[in-house]
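Reviewers of the previous submission asked for a worked example of the structure-prediction workflow described in the proposal, so we include one complete record here. The input consisted solely of the amino acid sequence. No template or homolog information was supplied to the procedure at any stage.
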Amino acid sequence: MKKQNKKVILAFSGGLDTSFCVVYLKKQEYDVITVTVDTGGFSKKDQQYITKQSKLTGASKHYFIDGKKQLYEQIVSYIIKGNVLRGGIYPLSAGPERLIIATKLVEIAKKEKAVAVAHGSTGAGNDQVRFDVAIKVLAPDLKIITPIRNLSITRNEEMDILKKYSVPFNETKKDYSINQGMLGITIAGKETKESWDSPPDDVYHISSVEKAPNIGEEIIINFEKGLPTHVNNKLMSGIEIMKYLNKLGSKHGVGKGIHLGNTILGIKGRVAFVAPASLILIKAHKELEKLMLTKWQLFWKDILTEAYGNFLHEALYFDPVVKDIEALIDSSQKKVTGQVKVKLIKGNIIIIGYKSLYSLMDQKIATYGEENSFWTGKEAAGFCKIYGLQSILAQRANAKKYEKN
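From that input alone, the workflow returned the following structure tokens.
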């Protein structure tokens, strides 16, 4: 009776690294099942190529899974509602998508009764941590295999092995590693390995500021409970809005940037990115919620959502505190419903106006710098007198101390 190989589920992109992983795992007598999760970056042509490549590498079965809905509902929605921008500029892009991929890997592993899952991460980046932590949380009994990391193999060595086993692959050496998903495109390569230069404009796949139309474009975005529902009065799903704004923003050169930050492993890392939809929605949402949230709601929400973004980016999504913060975010968004008027022009996102039935900005009560119906001038003078009392007392105490010395 023929021995049945143990099953391993491999996160598969169809590129050099994961193609090598199939060959390596088969040599280790595993039955390799490949899984590709679409988080917003694959065309029909890409899907066909990846499916064909899986077969050519010798995988026994291939799954192509649509993860966009889960990604939007579980993660992207909270990035928008939380105005999450790492370092104040970067909407996380590819990182959180690894959580969805890991979740699907585990689901297929359980379905196929696999003994292990595998991914093609190296030992130098953030993705290895994201995959490993998520898999260990969701399925602690599954073995995790990482051929590229474990072997410390070079790309040239991978190519030689694939040629030996007659496995086709794209031999083109690229200057840039580009990851595309719903939240945006990340770009790493020559210039991002140091801190001075920037990748050329053509790498970003959007209009440069110089080539963008001279005449801008105004749009109106409707939000309901913190999430976008319409653009220019057209009802769309969140995924459709992301796709539409990515295309529109790209036309106007919007959403390009470079983020420098701390990696999970403790070193500094730099990545270029293009994220028109994410940046448009976050900026519009942030301005809208200023209308209906109080000073202290905004203050504490900003602090906690910065921490939330760090948990998402740094592979700690499954810490229970994440759900606690999401509960606060959801609570804060109950009345964040209204419209935002946005102008896109020459790389700029300009918020022109916003309105809501729940606005706390009421001209019937008070107009800044002019008049109000809530207090008198005499009452205002009294407020001004006592408002800075502790600052006044502290200044007097310091003055006495200096006189004594």
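The domain at 178-293+336-355 is CATH 3.90.1260.10 (Argininosuccinate synthetase, chain A, domain 2). We consider this example representative of the routine output the project will generate in years two and three.
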